[in-house]
Design brief:
This protein is an alpha+beta fold and 197 residues long. It has eight helices and five strands; from the N terminus they run αβαββααααββαα. The longest helix has 14 residues.
Length: 197
């Protein structure tokens, strides 16, 4: 199989969670999108680390534009129980919830890509509500990163390709509980003076 094979592109996006489209012909992407839509899936353009954590021998690479495999129509496997879906632990779940709240400031906007946020703000918020800091660091630095739910963006974090892949029903459900998401006390908007040189 080559990069001109739409089935290979879909398999790569599924296996690695995110794939580069630099050397992929446009017609291959279009054919892969048609195949994905026929199966209730969709290719979603987003940013992610290349190489992706699933394909990286060491640290994942820098953020670049690419694609991930998302859901186009409900029910998603979690709802249909069509195959096992990985569940997050309680600490991973609440850490991800704080990351969502830190990145998603306006409920009327799209969930992805959200705003960049600080790791320390997430850790401090979770420490205040009694989470074990070691488990929080593990969730941020390893678990959520490997699952592509969050990515490093220089010295900040941002929502990852797995969030872009979430079905619209997930974002709608989050909108209903948006005001209940745990969030840091102060605004997490990154000011221009905080930007990297």
């Amino acid at each position: 199989m080559t990069l001109s094979d739409p089935a290979y592109l879909l398999a790569k996006a599924r296996a690695q969670g995110f794939c580069d489209l630099t050397d992929v012909p446009e017609q291959t992407v279009e054919a892969a999108q048609r195949l994905a839509l026929a199966c209730g899936r969709r290719l979603v353009t987003c940013e992610g680390p290349l190489p992706a954590p699933a394909a990286a021998a060491g640290q994942p690479g820098a953020l670049r534009s690419g694609m991930t495999l998302g859901w186009s129509v409900p029910p998603v496997p979690e709802d249909a129980a069509s195959y096992p879906v990985r569940r997050l632990s309680a600490t991973q779940s609440v850490t991800f919830a704080v990351c969502l709240a830190a990145a998603w400031h306006d409920v009327h906007q799209s969930l992805y890509p959200g705003e960049r946020f600080r790791r320390a703000d997430v850790v401090d918020t979770l420490r205040e509500i009694g989470a074990d800091p070691r488990a929080v660091y593990a969730a941020i630095d390893t678990d959520l990163h490997l699952l592509l739910l969050i990515c490093h963006d220089g010295r900040y974090l941002r929502l990852g390709p797995a969030v872009a892949a979430l079905p619209d029903t997930f974002a709608e459900a989050l909108r209903r509980v948006y005001d209940q998401l745990p969030r840091p006390r102060e605004s997490l908007t990154i000011r221009p003076e905080d930007e990297e040189p």
